[in-house]
TrEMBL record:
GO process terms (BP): L-proline biosynthetic process
Family in the record: Belongs to the pyrroline-5-carboxylate reductase family.
Listed NCBIfam families: proC (TIGR00112)
Keyword RNA-binding among UniProt keywords: no
Short name of any one Pfam family annotated for the protein: P5CR_dimer
Catalytic activity: L-proline + NAD(+) = (S)-1-pyrroline-5-carboxylate + NADH + 2 H(+); L-proline + NADP(+) = (S)-1-pyrroline-5-carboxylate + NADPH + 2 H(+)
Record's protein name: Pyrroline-5-carboxylate reductase
Amino acids binding NADPH: N65
HAMAP family, alphabetized: P5C_reductase
Length: 278
C-alpha cells in the first residue's frame, strides 16, 4: 500500500453512522479526502458541501461503490448488516491489495468479511457511537487476522478525528456496544426523566428542559475539564446532611448499579440473538 501522509477514505452506505463519521472527518479539518455513497440522491444531498467530501448517489452513478472502493486506501462499510455480504462481493474484485476494510456493521463478524475479501485485504471491525457527529465519539476497534499494528494505527487516527478510540479483541465489541454504543440513549433517557421531574415541580416546558438539559451538559463539561473522578465531583456537590445527599440517598435505593448491569446484560443478550439471525 502506498503510504500517503493522509489516506483517502471511502464510506459505502453512509447512513446515520457512516454520515456521522464523514461529518466528523470533515469537521476535523485534517484534509482527508472522503467519498461517500448512498442509494438515493436525497440521502447523498445531505452530505454534500462538507469540506473534502464527495457525495455520490447510486441512483445517479450506478458504479459509485466500486469506483469509490477502487480509489481508496481505507474503505468503511456502512450499509445495513444484512446487505454487507452483497456489497463485499460487489467491490472485492476492485480493491487494490493492501486496501484496508473497516466495518461499521453491528453484529457482522470479521470472519464473514474475511471469507469474502480474502487474505490480501486486512479487516478492522469498529463500533462508533452517534456523538461522532460533534467530534465526541467513543469508537471501539478490533483487528482481523491479517490486520497489523500499523493498520490499527491508521484506523485509530481516522476515528480520532471524531472522538476517542478504544482497542479491544473482537469478542468484546458487542459488550462495548452495550456501554458506549447504546450509552447515549441511556443519557437521553435520564435527561427526559429529570425534565419530567422539573415539570412535576410546576416549571413550564421550556424552563424544565433548560434546567435538565443544561445541567447534564454542564456536568459533562465539568467532568471533562476537571479530569477528576466522577465520584469525587459528586462528593463536592453533596454537602453532609444537605439536600443533595438526601436526593442521592433515594436514587441509591433504586440500585442504579444493578439496574445498569441488568440493562447492559439485556442489550448484550440481544446482540447475540441478532448475530445468530434471530
Amino acid at each position: 500500500m502506498t503510504h500517503h501522509p493522509l489516506p483517502t477514505v471511502a464510506i459505502l452506505g453512509a447512513g446515520s453512522m457512516g454520515g456521522a463519521i464523514a461529518q466528523g472527518i470533515a469537521r476535523s479539518g485534517g484534509g482527508i479526502a472522503v467519498t461517500v455513497t448512498n442509494r438515493s440522491t436525497a440521502k447523498a444531498a445531505e452530505l454534500e458541501g462538507l469540506a473534502g467530501v464527495t457525495s455520490l448517489a447510486l441512483a445517479d452513478v450506478p458504479t459509485a461503490n466500486t469506483d469509490a472502493a477502487a480509489s481508496a486506501d481505507i474503505v468503511l462499510i456502512g450499509v445495513k448488516p444484512a446487505m454487507v455480504p452483497d456489497l463485499l462481493r460487489e467491490i472485492e474484485g476492485h480493491l487494490r491489495p493492501g486496501t484496508l476494510i473497516v466495518s461499521l456493521a453491528a453484529g457482522v463478524t470479521i470472519a464473514t468479511f474475511e471469507s469474502i475479501v480474502g487474505d490480501a485485504i486486512p479487516v478492522v471491525r469498529s463500533m462508533p457511537n452517534t456523538p461522532a457527529v460533534v467530534g465526541k465519539a467513543v469508537t471501539g476497534i478490533a483487528g482481523g487476522t491479517t490486520a497489523t499494528p500499523e493498520h490499527l494505527a491508521s484506523v485509530r487516527r481516522l476515528f480520532e478525528t471524531c472522538g476517542v478510540v478504544i482497542e479491544v479483541p473482537e469478542e468484546k465489541i458487542d459488550a462495548l456496544s452495550t456501554i458506549s454504543g447504546s450509552g447515549p440513549a441511556y443519557v437521553f433517557l435520564l435527561v427526559e426523566a429529570l425534565t419530567e421531574a422539573a415539570r412535576g415541580k410546576g416549571f413550564d416546558e421550556a424552563d424544565a428542559r433548560v434546567m435538565a438539559e443544561q445541567t447534564f451538559i454542564g456536568a459533562a463539561a465539568l467532568l471533562a475539564a476537571s479530569g477528576e473522578d466522577p465520584a469525587e465531583l459528586r462528593r463536592r456537590v453533596t454537602s453532609p446532611k444537605g439536600t443533595t445527599e438526601r436526593a442521592i440517598g433515594v436514587l441509591q435505593t433504586g440500585n442504579l448499579d444493578g439496574l445498569f448491569a441488568q440493562a447492559t446484560d439485556a442489550a448484550l443478550a440481544r446482540a447475540r440473538e441478532l448475530a445468530a439471525g434471530a
